[in-house]
Amino acid sequence: MVTKLPKTDVVTVGVGWTGGIIAAELSKAGLKVVGLERGGDRSTENFAMKHDELRYALRYELMQDLSRETLTFRHNSKQRALPMRQYGAFLLGNGVGGAGTHWNGMTDRYNPYDFEIRSKTIEKYGESKIDPELTIQDWGITYDEMEPYYTKFELMAGISGDETPLRGHRSEPFPNPALKKTPAMDIFFDATKEMGLDPFVIPAANNSQAYDNPDGQHLAACQYNGFCERFGCEFGAKGSPNTTVIPTALKTGNFELRANSEVLEILHEGGKATGVLYMDTRTGERFEQPAEVVAVTSYTFNNNRLLLNSGLGTPYDPKTGRGTIGKNYCYQVIVGNDGFFDDEKFNSAIGSGGLAAVLDNFNADNFDHSDYDFLHGGSVLMGQKGKRPIDENQVPSGTPRWGKEFKAQSLKYYNRHLNLYTYGAQLPTVHNYLDLDPTYKDINGYPLLRMTFDFTESDRKRGKFLNQQTRKILEAMGATHISDDTNMDHFDMTRYQATHNTGGVIMGADPETSAVNNYLQMWEHDNVFVVGGSAYAHQSGYNATATLGALAYRASEGIIDYSKKGGSLA
């Protein structure tokens, strides 16, 4: 039996960064919003004195329960996909705040090149520069159009930052100063400046000082004691939905948050969504929540899966190239090196999730690609996020993985080790996509999402190039031993790299090649807005969160305008 509830103006599917921003902006504008989140509710108080690496970092308490719902994976369409039974390459958040609760806080704007990647590449290098295997396309929006929304996100989250060379222009300074540099970061700065490069402290949502945002929410100052990644911040010093937009939405009286509410289907009739079917995960009861507008605001995988299971949009067909739902799935090219120093010692335990030295000299089109057989690049980072004692215990190559020598090397190098890595761009191809698995289903009987993905030759060439840069920098920094952290023969589903999954419901200017317009409104169902990393037409060489937040602010404007006028916003 399904209980039908009173109609609301807007229902959001998920209450993380995107759902929280939309709830805050729409409720401030007077719209009635219901936020459905399949995980439990939580706030800063839930994380007090819980620096428990085993509980959160290794047993994944804040993550999705893979026994209830997971995805299947294969490298190519000739293989049979198998379910992901345990976490590896990426983590899937669960609960109010979503991944915005347990993220590190690195807050990068995408490069102007990213939003017009195809046209800018052709303009500079000619169309022959684009490998035929790539399906890159412009996003249907420019950096200049995105810039005000980036600024809104940064002001709301209290981003700490300073200069950002080789990135797009800024209309306003960061609301907080950059985080403090450590001695290890000073070595990175000195070495890279000597090489003629342009290092800076990465913008971060770890607030460098106490801050009151434009909505009146107070964020505390970062304590630099680590335990950010995979953890909620016990001090309320990390910009997250739980400390910013969700309290703002609740304060209006126009937002109702329903935790433990799993959306099963988007209901629709005659080309319009009529609401959603959801289940109370504690009791199994099912409800229909009618709504004028449905905002699909969950993680990339769930956005795709929910649309496919609901029969919304046209599924992508890799054989013909037609259809858009599931198209242009991308991950990230993560390569790097471990440097070990016999003559330097660092306090590796201190730090903050978003604290890092970074440079963009090898990112986007900031260097001339004429003599390279790949496009784009990646940011080079040296983070100091607070080294955890259990699973962050690197030793030089050739060291046994257990026993007396392993213990001796672990003790020697725990504070003499630095890792340089890259967030490398990953460009889409016809062969990498998302669809529904024909065999495996979740606990409620709905097909799981199937991920078909592997690195392309251009990914491998980009990764090799970026790996060469990190090695050169570590040599310049004085590392006595350098271990290679790169294996790109095939995508490794078992080794954690980054939770930066994008695409599948991509934005653009053409309904034939994109699923949503630049307000993230579906072309085929104009009262459905699909907001999140699923909208990215490719993966850039940065952390993806700032762009996700900026697009959520733009989508909020679109939903408000649609609610007043109706119809397509394109």
Mean pLDDT: 94
User: Care to count the β-strands?
Assistant: 22
Parts with pLDDT < 50 across at least 5 consecutive residues? none
What fraction, in percent, of the residue positions are helical? 10-25%
Distance between the ends: 39 Å
Q: Please, how many helices?
A: 12
Strand content: 15-25%
**Shape category:** globular
Radius of gyration: 23 Å
Summary keywords:
six-stranded antiparallel β-sheet; 570 residues; GMC family oxidoreductase; oxidoreductase; 12 helices; GMC_OxRdtase_N; alpha/beta
Structure overview:
This protein is of the alpha/beta class and 570 residues long. It has a domain of 324 residues. 23% of the residues lie in helices and 21% in strands. The strands form five sheets. Strands 1, 2, 3, 9, 10, 11, 12 and 22 form an eight-stranded mixed β-sheet that branches. It has a six-stranded antiparallel β-sheet with strand order 6-15-16-17-14-20, with helices on one face. It has a four-stranded mixed β-sheet with strand order 5-4-19-18, covered by helices on one side. The chain is globular, with a radius of gyration of 23 Å. It starts with a strand and ends in a 5-residue tail after the last helix. The mean pLDDT is 94.
Task: Sum this structure up briefly.
The chain is α/β, with parallel strands linked by helices and 570 residues long. The chain is built from 12 helices and 22 strands.
SSE topology:
Layout lengths: L1 E3 L3 E6 L3 H12 L4 E4 L16 H6 L12 E4 L7 E2 L15 H4 L9 H4 L1 H9 L17 H15 L25 H12 L5 E2 L9 E2 L5 E2 L25 H8 L2 E4 L2 E9 L2 E9 L5 E11 L3 H11 L16 E4 L2 E8 L10 E9 L18 E8 L18 H10 L3 E8 L8 E9 L5 E6 L4 H21 L3 E4 L17 E3 L23 E3 L14 H21 L5
Parallel strand pairs: 1-12, 2-3, 2-12, 3-9, 4-19, 12-22
Antiparallel strand pairs: 4-5, 6-15, 7-8, 10-11, 11-12, 13-21, 14-17, 14-20, 15-16, 16-17, 18-19
Family: Belongs to the GMC oxidoreductase family.
Pfam families: GMC_oxred_C, GMC_oxred_N
Organism: Oceanobacillus luteolus
